[in-house]
Amino acid sequence: MFSQFALHERLLKAVAELKFVEPTPVQVAAIPPALEGRDLRVTAQTGSGKTAAFVLPLLNRLIGEAKPRERIRSLILLPTRELAQQTLKEVERFSQFTFIKSGIVTGGEDFKEQAALLRKLPDVLVSTPGRLIEHLNSGTVDLREVEVLVLDEADRMLDMGFAEDMQRITELCANRQQTLLFSATTGGNALREVANNVLRDPLHLRLNSIDQLSEGTRHQIITADHAEHKEQLARWLLANETYQKAIIFTNTRVQADRLYGHLVAGGYKAFVLHGDKDQKDRKLAIDRVKQGGTKVLVATDVAARGLDIEGLDLVINFDMPRSGDEYVHRVGRTGRAGGEGLAISLICHNDWNLMSSIERYLKQSFERRTIKELKGTYSGPKKVKASGKAAGVKKKKTDKKGDKKTTAKAAAPKRRPNKPREETRVVSSDGLAPLKRRKTEE
């Protein structure tokens, strides 16, 4: 029960009004230390309820001090407009019985209107890095008095090239008293460096490792001969699978538009979402899918983070994502909050090695599936290595005289430097078992 947390009665009233009953594992683990004012680094699955895990402690701090609104007191930084809008709604829902005011600043909206909002000094500012930097450059926002800084989906912000913007923004929030960093993946060295720079004596909560995908989601692959064959398979799946709503991911905007056009021509109610679409079109696409007027959304990875659409239970990877982390974010759109979902990847010969690498990275073996009506000639490589990748014939290198060169390296391999160790709390999957401490190497 949320009453176990030392939250203000007005927040508990909002939680009850919203029919939040049992806190999720990430909320059980993160809310108490966040209420104590500790800096946190939290690694938790997409769809695990981590927005409430940082919004509730943040609002509790703002209620507790009850100071007049003279400055922006907290900043929530996120990678995409869609995630920012969704987070703002959560802030507004949880603060409905308080006098806390919030605002949003993202790209695609009128700059002057945003400047007017910033002059009103909202208690909670939700923003994306790029547009916030523009307001900083124009002098329309002052972050010097920010008390709490939240970096949500920090790994995605790094993937999108916002490292320098994040660094500048955190430096300008120099007087902050608490920093909360949330991510769906451990993020590697880049995220570790950011955490070391912005967090002070942090507690690292790891509620899942990267290979722990949602238990309610099945993962399948279907082999295809070429792009046109993939389009046939996608249309067959949309026509024959049982689902409420579906999202199809492509790697390029051109392919997204092409597939969207073919689906609409085939009578499907679909929308397309990618970076070339303006804010109005992007909002329309998401709203139509959420409301049920449209069942199919075709998207690039701009939609792989932050979308929380009820009833979205089918994900099709028309193109394989370029990394295991991106696979996690894509399929995280389904099987959320304990629900069931199906993730299907369409695999041509040039996708096989990438798919094998993702399987190995996630320590998963995807279910192989064949659609009899559309069975192609390609069913995978004839020979595979122990790693699962296709085995090819290597050509031996020759020097100018035609002599075969040895493949052995003369120099000994370089030793990797020892990585720093970090104290981490690993939380059990149910969130109720005692927290354990262990030393981990990322």
From TrEMBL:
What is the protein name stated in its UniProt record? Putative ATP-dependent RNA helicase
Residue span(s) of domain Helicase C-terminal = 232-377
The UniProt entry, under Pfam families, shows: DEAD, Helicase_C
Q: What keywords are assigned to this protein?
A: ATP-binding, Helicase, Hydrolase, Nucleotide-binding
- The answer to keyword Phosphoprotein applying to this record is no
What is the protein's species of origin? Metapseudomonas resinovorans NBRC 106553
UniProt GO cellular component terms: cytosol
Region annotated Disordered sits at 379-442
Q: Where does the record place the Helicase ATP-binding domain?
A: 31-204
The keyword DNA-binding is annotated on this UniProt entry: no
Family label: Belongs to the DEAD box helicase family.
InterPro entries in the cross-refs = DEAD/DEAH_box_helicase_dom, DEAD/DEAH_RhlB, DEAD_box_RNA_helicase, Helicase_ATP-bd, Helicase_C-like, P-loop_NTPase, RNA-helicase_DEAD-box_CS, RNA_helicase_DEAD_Q_motif
| Ranges that cross the membrane | none
Motif Q motif: where? 1-28
Q: Where is the composition biased (Basic residues)?
A: 382-399
